[in-house]
Amino acid sequence: MLLIDDILLFPIYGVVWLGRKLHDAAQEERASEAEAITAELSELYMMLATGKITEAEFDRQEKELLDRLEEIEKRDTHIEDEPDKQPGESEAVFDAREKELLGRLEKIEELSAANENKKNEQTVDRELDIDQE
Length: 133
Known about the structure:
- The protein is mostly helical.
- Helix content is 88%, strand content 0%.
- It has one domain (2-80, 90-132).
- Helix 1 packs antiparallel against helix 2 and helix 1 (2-50) packs parallel to helix 3 (89-132).
């Protein structure tokens, strides 16, 4: 009897399997889109720290990227959770991303401070060279 059930229900199982695969592919695409936006944010912070863009340009681009990221998060909250998904899993993923971004921001701030110190040292060296002449 089980063999007959399996044979008769195989098309339904196939459609369910296909639906799960499509759902997984869509989630991966959304995740990669969010990762691309966070990478763009990191680049934007680095450009600001190195002085390649102005504060106004930074604010405009940051707002645009954060709005896109917020839109992705809103889309994700409207999608039903997978049946085998652990409670709180999406929050853990978000927390991990937030921690990664904060770590990157700290590195950028350190690089910015180091760059500022280097500029100050160069200014002092120039002033000493001028005084010696």
